[in-house]
């Protein structure tokens, strides 16, 4: 354990503690000048935001946490120090309550980020797909599938503390992407990497393998909304991209290729296709090659999942969060 802990303790003592002292001094000086009636943060578990919430609380300034992502693990969500939390849906509320957040301090509001998400018009699907395939350097004709890779983990322990993946699992989904590209050459496959945590030397080698497959592209910063609106299928694991695809009515396969059990909120809703092996993944992905679309049962399951996870995504989440902040601040003005 010591080789893992030593550099973290060194960083904590030499850089983070002094930086937090400086931040505390600035917050204390700023609060009388700004005189806020409430504070809104996306989480209150990292050092600076926890410090902000605690110092505001000492001055009688209440705070609200707006859920920042899908709660797949307690880290990053609890313990909650803010007065209230705006949660996306009933599924998050139940999971956070099981982790110790009092139900009386949570309100289901939906996710403001998704207020503008609506399924695109079907009439322009072919043109959107051709434009995205062209921008990626793929042939303009044929289906398009997106595979979401987790953030690249540097050590195995990161699976349990942050990335929900380990290096072996990451390489397995990359290997699966290459196998799918080989098995279905008419489909354009896009391996969407997480923008953070890239290891340059690994991705340099990955580039050589990708160049040998004309129907596979690897991207990290391509416009995700544009990519999803052109997609016929999304393959993901522990990613909010599952929600974003579902909001746009794109069929989703959740691929857990690890030896660990499913522990995400998506699979229990029935709104996604769940697979545990490369063989099952290939079978599900053939829906893209065959041009299969959602049937009535699939659409009902998609809506049920959105109801549970993001309060149906009715476009009013921003308004609901603002109402909660005004309530906490003690009035309707401002």
Q: Could you characterize what this model shows?
A:
The protein has twelve helices and ten strands. The radius of gyration is 22 Å and the shape is globular. It has helices spanning 2-34, 47-58, 90-98, 125-135, 158-161, 167-183, 200-211, 224-229, 241-247, 278-289, 296-310, 317-329; strands at 39-41, 63-66, 84-87, 106-108, 144-148, 188-192, 216-219, 233-236, 252-255, 273-275. A six-stranded parallel β-sheet has the order 7-6-5-8-9-10, with helices on both faces. A four-stranded parallel β-sheet has the order 1-2-3-4, sandwiched between helices. It is of the alpha/beta class. Helix 1 packs parallel to helix 2 (47-58).
How many angstroms does the end-to-end distance come to? 50 Å
Gyration radius from CA atoms, angstroms: 22 Å
Uncertain stretches of 5 or more adjacent residues? 156-164
Number of helices: 12
Name the average pLDDT.
86
């Amino acid at each position: 354990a010591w080789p893992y802990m030593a550099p973290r303790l060194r960083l904590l003592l030499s850089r983070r503690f002094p930086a937090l002292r400086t931040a505390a001094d600035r917050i204390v000086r700023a609060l009388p000048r700004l005189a806020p009636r409430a504070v809104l943060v996306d989480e209150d578990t990292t050092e600076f935001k926890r410090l902000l919430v605690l110092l505001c609380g000492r001055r009688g300034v209440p705070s609200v946490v707006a859920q920042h992502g899908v709660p797949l693990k307690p880290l990053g969500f609890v313990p909650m120090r803010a007065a209230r939390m705006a949660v996306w849906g009933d599924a998050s509320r139940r999971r956070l309550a099981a982790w110790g957040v009092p139900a009386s301090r949570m309100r289901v509001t939906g996710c403001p980020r998704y207020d503008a998400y609506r399924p695109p018009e079907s009439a322009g699907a072919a043109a959107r797909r051709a434009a995205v395939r062209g921008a990626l350097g793929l042939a303009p004709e044929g289906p398009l599938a997106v595979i979401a890779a987790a953030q690249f983990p540097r050590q195995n322990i990161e699976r349990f503390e942050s990335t929900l993946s380990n290096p072996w699992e990451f390489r397995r989904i990359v290997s699966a992407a290459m196998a799918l590209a080989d098995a279905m050459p008419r489909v354009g496959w896009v391996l969407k990497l997480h923008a953070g945590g890239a290891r340059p030397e690994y991705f340099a080698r990955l580039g050589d393998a990708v160049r040998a497959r004309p129907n596979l592209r690897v991207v990290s910063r391509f416009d995700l909304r544009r990519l999803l609106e052109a997609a016929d299928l999304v393959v993901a694991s522990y990613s909010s991209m599952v929600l974003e695809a579902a909001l746009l009515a794109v069929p989703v396969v959740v691929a857990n290729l690890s030896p660990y059990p499913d522990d995400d909120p998506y699979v229990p809703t029935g709104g996604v296709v769940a697979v545990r092996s490369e063989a099952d993944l290939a079978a599900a992905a053939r829906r893209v090659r065959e041009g299969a679309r959602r049937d009535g049962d699939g659409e009902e399951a998609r809506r049920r999942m959105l109801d549970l996870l993001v309060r149906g995504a009715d476009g009013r989440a921003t308004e609901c969060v603002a109402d909660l902040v005004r309530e906490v601040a003690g009035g309707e003005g401002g």
